[in-house]
Specification:
Blueprint (H helix, E strand, L loop, with lengths): L1 H10 L7 H5 L2 H20 L3 H24 L5 H15 L20 H16 L16 H13 L8 H21 L2 H21 L4 H25 L9 H13 L3
Helix pairs in contact: 1-4, 3-4, 7-9, 8-9, 10-11
Organism: Marinomonas hwangdonensis
EC number: 3.6.1.8
Catalytic activity: ATP + H2O = AMP + diphosphate + H(+)
Length: 263
């Protein structure tokens, strides 16, 4: 860890550092952080643990990068980040570390998983002190849309604004689909976009009720589609044709074969 921190300071050195690293800012690095986080998730989904080790290193490097820039501005250091995290985790896990004391680890806890979750939320609320004026003010607007939708729905559900039964969510999806069809008849692109957003929000709500991450579920479908379409390309090539030469019916037949092959 010491070598990594020193390496980062060298990369940012004003005289002998790397030209690219020296010119980076918090905002310019942010998209890379999101990309690295998704690459970690991808390695987990593929159960590629050797690659996961590498991707976790890349994600850690993002944290070190931010901390180096903050230290240069005399805001905080990487050690401040780590110390703050330890302090917070000790505070939020009194059932594991009584009185927030790391030395007291090992004393058994009788709390249930539900009680632990309630305790966690209570401690978080106490940390904030005065509650936010608005329920959704803590949900970052820069968060990816699907993830943000889930967070919004979780927040309002905690104050009682939620469907009591999953069947009602299905009804809501059907209602939104009907409204989308009506918008299409109007040929109003802006209205179509709005109704499409409502459909996606309702489907995301269904995923939350089913305790499924819509982001991960969609990512798995993307992977499956890529795998199957890759097989379609192989079958088309075996017929000595190009994709553009095949009819939709022919491509559908190849797609069905890929499905039968378990892809």
């Amino acid at each position: 860890m010491s070598q990594l921190l020193y390496l980062m300071s060298c990369l940012r050195d004003e005289i002998n550092g790397c030209a690219w690293d020296k010119k980076q800012t918090y905002k310019s690095i942010a998209p890379h952080t999101l990309e690295e986080a998704y690459e970690v998730i991808d390695a987990i989904e593929r159960e590629d643990f050797e690659h996961l080790k590498e991707e976790l290193g890349d994600l850690l490097f993002q944290v070190v990068f931010y901390a180096q820039m903050a230290e240069e501005e005399q805001r905080f250091s990487f050690y401040d980040v780590a110390a703050g995290l330890v302090e917070k985790m000790l505070r939020r896990h009194p059932h594991v570390f009584p009185n927030g004391d790391l030395a007291r680890f090992g004393e058994p806890s009788l709390l249930t998983e539900q009680q632990i979750a309630e305790q966690w939320q209570k401690i978080k609320a106490e940390e904030k002190g005065v509650p936010d004026a608005h329920v959704l003010s803590s949900v970052p607007v820069s968060m990816p849309a699907l993830m943000q939708a889930v967070k919004i729905q979780q927040k309002v559900a905690k104050v009682g604004f939620d469907w009591p039964d999953v069947g009602l969510v299905f009804d809501k999806i059907r209602e939104e689909l009907d409204e989308l069809e009506e918008a299409l008849k109007e040929q109003n692109p802006s209205h179509v976009e709005e109704e499409m957003g409502d459909v996606l929000f309702a489907v995301t709500n269904l995923a939350r009720h089913l305790k499924v991450s819509p982001d991960i579920a969609l990512n798995k479908t993307n992977i499956k589609f890529r795998r199957r379409f890759g097989r379609v390309e192989e079958l088309v090539a075996a017929d000595q044709k190009s994709l553009s030469e095949c009819s939709l019916e022919a491509l559908d037949r190849h797609w069905d074969q890929a499905k039968r092959e378990g892809l």
